[in-house]
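Annual report, structural modelling task.

Input specification for the protoporphyrin IX containing FE complex:
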Amino acid sequence: MSPGAHGINGVSLFSTNHMNPAFYHLLHVFALLVLTAHTYMAFANPDPENRKRTVMITGIASLLMLVSGFGLFAKIYHNQWAGWIVVKLFCWLGFTALGGIAYRKAHLRGLLSFLGLAILLIALVMVYLKPF
Ligand code: HEM
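The model returned the following structure:
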């Protein structure tokens, strides 16, 4: 049995022992694709009419990314903090904000879309190279 949260009689509300990490990986990357696609749709067409839908879809996708990210963190890294995961958290926060900003600062969307790519690249370097 892998180390995890063992509550009273081995039952814990927060136990992730029964979850296959592949499920979290799949959810993490799928939610990332949905979040990225809808964020860039907002950049391409920041029509205020679509704002509500974009904020809803990117909000749900972003939440699923965070939950699956922490699922992986618990499952693979047993909640051992490291620099790369902290940087990823900031990347997640920054990227999540971009969709909403696109509607309020539509004139900045060229810059925002470049910033989005830079954030994604940093997050990918963190997870694949884990420099610290
Ligand atoms: C913009 C933000 C993020 C991007 C682009 C991103 C992207 C990715 C990608 C592509 C993977 C690798 C999947 C694979 O190779 O199977 C991954 C894995 C992972 N992510 Fe994220 N992620 C982000 C945010 C987060 C957040 C906020 C957390 C944290 C709590 C997190 C925790 C993890 C963990 C623990 C793994 C597993 C690493 C491993 O298998 O060694 N990620 N992420």
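The radius of gyration is 17 Å.
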